[in-house]
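Field guide to reading this record: the first block holds the primary sequence, the second block holds the structure written as discrete tokens, and the final block holds curator observations. Each block starts with its own label. This record concerns Transcriptional regulator, catalogued under organism Haloarcula argentinensis.

BLOCK 1 — SEQUENCE
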Amino acid sequence: MDQAESGRTGTTTGTATERPLKILFEIELPDNCSCPLSDPDADIESVHNQIDDGICHAEMTVSDETGTARVLHSTNQVGDGCLCLAFGEVGCVPRTRRVDGNTLFIETYVSDRSVISELVEQLQSAAERVRLRRLTSRQDDETESEPATVDLSCLTTKQREAAILAVDEGYYRQPRQTTLDELASTLDISKSALSQRLNAVESKLATAAFDP
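BLOCK 2 — STRUCTURE
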């Protein structure tokens, strides 16, 4: 499937930065969503969109039951619930990989993990439900060029919330920039409960990454 890209950018023209982390989101749109992707009348093969002066122009390549491809063009007024705006607020470019009813599977790249929690927060303000399905990054070892992929669907909502906060606040950095007590206070749970959640996260992700 081709990539779906937003034409809205938040960076200075002529600059380029590496983004080694690839995230796949499963995003459920609300029933009253005006996005043309929320109720497609055919299988979507690719999407390209661009925001210009408050108007979202989208071109969707779709195929019908006979396999015949068509290109549909739509224009919609950009509202507060536009996913493209949510991605644009943190300078990310969405790429629609699959559409299943009112659920979108959208991929994007980020420069570091600190952006993930901000992006999730922006998406949650526009979507009915947001789920991190997969995080792919390059190995730290420079001799290893193959990507390491971890499926995040094995984590519960509370485990993902705890993990994102811990990474965002620098709990896994050396030296650590926060403590379990501080993280637990932010989540309004006990230190032992947070410790159990993070232990479960580490166990699940280690198994997902290295279990053949």
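BLOCK 3 — OBSERVATIONS
The chain is about 25% helix and 30% strand.
Residues 191-210 form the longest helix (20 residues).
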